[in-house]
Write a structure and sequence with these properties.
Organism: Streptomyces californicus
Number of helices: 13
InterPro entries: Aminotrans_V_dom, PyrdxlP-dep_Trfase, PyrdxlP-dep_Trfase_major, PyrdxlP-dep_Trfase_small
Keywords: Aminotransferase, Pyridoxal phosphate, Transferase
Number of domains: 2
GO molecular function: transaminase activity
Structural class: alpha/beta
Bound molecules: pyridoxal-5'-phosphate
Oligomer: single chain
CATH topology of the largest domain: Aspartate Aminotransferase, domain 2
Helix content: 25-40%
Strand content: 15-25%
Largest sheet: 7 strands, mixed
Cofactor: pyridoxal 5'-phosphate
Amino acid sequence: MSVTTAALDPSVCAPLPVLGQDVTVPLVTGGEVVYAALDYAASAPALQRVWDDVAAYAPYYGSVHRGAGYLSQLSTDLFENSRRTVAEFLGCRAEDQVVFTRSTTDSLNLLAAALPADCQVFVYETEHHASLLPWRDARVTYLDAPRTPAQAVETLERALADRDPYGPALVCVTGASNVTGELWPVKELAAAAHAHGARIVLDAAQLAPHHPVDIAELDVDWVAFSGHKLYAPFGSGVLAGRADWLREAEPYLAGGGASRKVSRRADGGVDVDWHTTAARHEAGSPNVIGVYSIASACKALTEAGFDNLVAREQELVSRVREGLAEVPEVQVLSLFGDDAPRVGVISFVVRGWNSSHFAAALSAEYGIGVRDGLFCAHPLVRTLLGSDPQDPGECGAPEAEPGERSLNAIRVSFGAGTPDEHIDRFLRAVSELVRDGARWNYRTEDGRCVPDRGEAARTA
Ligand SMILES: Cc1ncc(COP(=O)(O)O)c(C=O)c1O
């Protein structure tokens, strides 16, 4: 997959309005500053459009698929129309199903629970834990970290060639890494999987907010993503794709909504006739606001011109990478190398700095929110840092002496709502901190690096 770099259309290339643009936060050094949210990869701010759509609907809120009243009917229509909007956004095939879940983690766990008997699963060790861990009850093969996209395809082909050719198999791969932002060769991996009779699920948690995802064009069998990373933080996620395995599986949750008919048996038990549609895996009262907010975000991104958003984000990616490259103490983490296409997710370490300390100073002294740690991708980050990927150590904030190798990393991430000023401030902050050091003293409290209190905590 390549990143689209369509010609910029200046009229639509401003950042999209998001909530929180005017929120100020206190600086430990005194005064306040507008918060720079540069942790989109964890959770992106809500699009203003999503918030407005949800607010406009809220007075009409009603139960879904249960209720004869007008607002129940309206809410049910909204819910089902949202399913169609998401299917369109993902370029779903006619026979695909969109199942609403709570998140990517939930979607992948649902698919894991729906695997046919004896299914073999192939997953790279570089995956986010949400993609790495749900398959542990199946026959899993963990694939070594590839160092190029071509090597990723070769590794998969080799593993698939050795598999039992008659049983079902599933490959799980991320579209864009939550650590390096690098794009994985999804289309080529899908072709390799299918050539060996396997299916493939795309973890699009980090791809969908940054790049159009077309399930039919990529020829993947399923796509999973989360609303809260797609500017729709109301607790819903999506699993879209082939209906057959899901239709044949036990319902993910047993309860109302998933069942069509329930009756007592003469022997005292209960007979259940489960739905065969998406409802089979959506038991309980659906989160109509969460689902509607995802549909609203899909529409907003499409109407803004996703290619234009991609092009603007690529400009920001270049600026961040060029800015960081000017600071020799900074090492950007990369699996596939400098030329790999990537989205607005960049992780790095700073020589002589503990990453937690650096992230704390960015927050306390500049009002910039980034993330530090191992980003729920422990084996990958450890490989990139040159530490032992098998190290079972905790992902806390170990103190590193200046000059010592960092045991965790810093991640800056941004997207459709990021103003240029946030990027400029971030780059200025990185070079000032490296050049001048922190202006405050910090200590570790409950595993997190925090500023010391009081005037005495100011460094000389
Ligand atoms: C690549 C990737 N997959 C899956 C997830 C899990 O997403 P969620 O926490 O919304 O379930 C994340 C979250 O950071 C992610 O980055």
